Amino acid sequence: MNHFCPGKKMQRYRVAVFTATLFSAITVQAATPGLDESLADVMHRWARITYQTPEGDQKAALAQLVPATEQLVQAYPGRAEALIWEAIVLSSEAKADGGLGALSKVKRARQLLLDAEKIDPNALNGSIYSSLGSLYAKVPSWPIGFGDRKVAKGYFEKALAISPDGIDANYFYGEMLAGEGDYPQATRYLAKALGAPARPGREDSDAGRRQEARVLLASVKTEHDRRARP
User: Fold this and answer.
1) This prediction's pTM
2) What secondary structure, in 3-state letters, does the chain show?
């Protein structure tokens, strides 16, 4: 004779529900990209926009990328890498936007980088300092903005102390020096940018940055030769 036992039946039911819920959670977790994968997606999208998208279309494309970086920061609170990339994308959007309307974006980018510095100043091989240096070198000075070449130089030196052969730190420092007319030093840092070691997973960004360095280096050489003529 079979006897109805509600206790055992309920126990089996709970085990089945728990197993199904656990399997569902594992499946969702496996389908959700981690920080590295999400960062890689943002990096590649940024590189395509910066180096392959027509200049007139970059502003709209970057505006679509900004929310992805904001979501990354929300998904991984306390991670400097996410803050750095939100700052980079915002800075790029400000550059594409231009004018005084871009000032709020670069101020926000600066704050994100300063927040990232508090978490991990060495994150992404000194990207915090190369990005801050670029901002201070390019943003207008007071009373319009916060630009300051002396501050920029200090940040570039910090970036180069962390990553002496880094392509971005050398390029941005060389770019600032070229703008100041210091062609010999600009040539030195731009040449180092061209010879920088490859970054695994950043081949598209590296190719674009090297092309920028080649163009700027050629321009620096031309201007240096012109000024050297009697």
Assistant:
1) 0.84
2) CCCCCHHHHHHHHHHHHHHHHHHHHHHHHHHCCCHHHHHHHHHHHHHHHHHHCCHHHHHHHHHHHHHHHHHHHHHCCCCHHHHHHHHHHHHHHHHHHCCHHHHHHHHHHHHHHHHHHHHCCCHHHHHHHHHHHHHHHHCCECCCCCECHHHHHHHHHHHHHHCCCCHHHHHHHHHHHHHCCCHHHHHHHHHHHHCCCCCCCCHHHHHHHHHHHHHHHHHHHHHHHHHHCC
